[in-house]
From TrEMBL:
Classification via InterPro entries: Cas12f1-like_TNB, RNA-guided_DNA_endo/Transpos, Transposase
The UniProt record lists the keyword Methyltransferase: no
Ranges where the Cas12f1-like TNB domain occurs: 295-360
UniProt keyword annotation of Nucleotide-binding present: no
PANTHER family: RNA-GUIDED DNA ENDONUCLEASE RV2885C-RELATED, TRANSPOSASE
The protein's name in its UniProt record: Transposase
GO BP of this protein: DNA recombination; transposition
Keyword entries, A-Z: DNA recombination, DNA-binding, Transposition
């Protein structure tokens, strides 16, 4: 199983070559974007490269590998847009890129060690010192394989290298797994976990709701003023709220994976909540908490921390997990009332989130038996991403919440 991580490293000193190269690279992406937009549908990276390579090389003087990276990056962006168009969450539109990042391929246009980064610029190959720190030392131990990475200009105006790397980690084959764990992520409790042996944990009770409520009131007060200084303060508050939520998700994910390791869990099951916001109706007063719920970020944190510990992660279909009685299997919307679950068929009573977590554990355990009976233990893809690998981002600046 491959574990993939992205570590953010700050460049100590920069020069004009970086910004000039970034601007030229962005000009190339906008040219490629125009080609795709006028085509009316996404183009493969290879097809787009054939249509744009000559212009990027001869008219914009972009290096060869950088010209190839432009096609890959733009093609991927439009494929993501097309998925949103198909879900009727967006419309076909021309994408404009801003000069904030450049994609590099390891060995071809970048090399790195724990002290220096060597990248291709318009002025040729250049070396820049990077700020290293204790946590990042592990990524230069020789265990990690470096992948395509990005040089990014952050909001503070500084340049950071987002180094993406991967390594093999051992995991127990799913057909030999016997102890499973279901995790229900939510708003009242950020995570509720239960194992095959019915050992359970409740984490993050009310913390996220209290945080969101506090910042919502602060925003409402500033919005009522309508001044420029209030607007600047609103932006600062938004970034601080994201940082605090990210820290909370890191804490909860660390605790739940620690619990799983102590319980000898082999496989963790979670719901595939893709498009959950589109298909869920909520009361007006709860709409903000629902829209700002950073569930995907928490799931990804749990995923990569679990993989580091050799615990497999699988995503299951979330259909009826909150409506099904985990004892008798009866399905009814009337079974659940807030945080209380009372089965109208057998009268079984349980905390609603714990009932959901038990149903998730049942589903992932059944998935293992289904694979074994079919003579295959290869898990299906979830939204096009293999669930046996994990991705994480760690470094100086928080990423956007899900």
């Amino acid at each position: 199983m491959n574990l993939t991580k992205t570590v953010v490293l700050k460049l100590k000193e920069t020069d004009d070559s970086i910004q000039e190269t970034m601007e030229r690279y962005t000009e190339g992406m906008n040219f490629a974007s125009k080609v795709v937009y006028e085509n009316g549908e996404p183009l493969s990276a290879n097809r787009l490269q054939k249509l744009t390579y000559k212009h990027l090389r001869e008219n914009l003087d972009l290096p060869s590998q950088m010209s190839c990276n432009v096609a890959r990056q733009v093609s991927g962006t439009y494929k993501a847009l097309q998925k949103q168009v198909e879900k009727e969450n967006s419309e076909w539109q021309k994408i404009e890129f801003s000069p904030t990042n450049i994609k590099f391929s390891y060995g071809r246009d970048y090399k790195i060690n724990k002290e220096k980064l060597s990248i291709t610029t318009l002025d040729g190959r250049k070396k820049y010192e990077i700020t290293n720190y204790e946590y990042a030392e592990q990524f230069f131990s020789g265990e990690w394989k470096y992948l395509a990475s990005e040089l990014v200009k952050h909001k503070d105006g500084e340049y950071y290298f987002h180094l993406t790397c991967e390594k093999e980690v051992e995991e127990k084959p799913i057909e030999k797994s016997s102890n499973f764990m279901g995790i229900d992520v939510g708003i009242n409790f950020l995570a509720v976990g239960t194992t095959t042996d019915k050992n359970q944990t409740f984490l993050g009770k009310g913390v996220a709701k209290d945080l969101r409520k506090t910042y919502k009131k602060m925003r409402q007060r500033l919005q009522s003023k309508g001044t420029f200084s209030a607007y600047k303060r609103l932006k600062a508050l938004s970034e601080k709220e994201k940082r605090l939520m990210k820290q909370l998700n890191h804490k909860v994910s660390k605790e739940i994976v620690k619990f799983a390791k102590e319980e000898g869990v082999d496989v963790i099951g979670m719901e595939d909540l893709t498009d959950i916001r589109d298909g869920t109706r909520v009361r007006k007063k709860d709409r903000y908490n629902h829209e700002s719920w950073a569930f995907r970020q928490l799931q990804k944190f749990i995923e990569y921390k679990a993989v580091e510990k050799g615990i497999r992660v699988e995503y299951i279909d979330p259909e009826n997990t909150s409506k099904t009685c985990s004892r008798c299997g009866h399905i009814s919307r009337n079974n659940r009332e807030g945080l209380n679950f009372v089965c109208e068929e057998c009268g079984y009573e349980l905390h609603a989130d714990l009932n959901g977590a038990r149903n998730i554990e049942h589903k992932v355990r059944d998935f293992r038996h289904d694979l074994e009976s079919q003579g295959s233990c290869q898990p299906p893809d979830v939204d096009g991403v293999e669930t046996t690998s994990a991705t994480a981002s760690c470094g100086a600046e928080p990423q956007a919440s899900s």
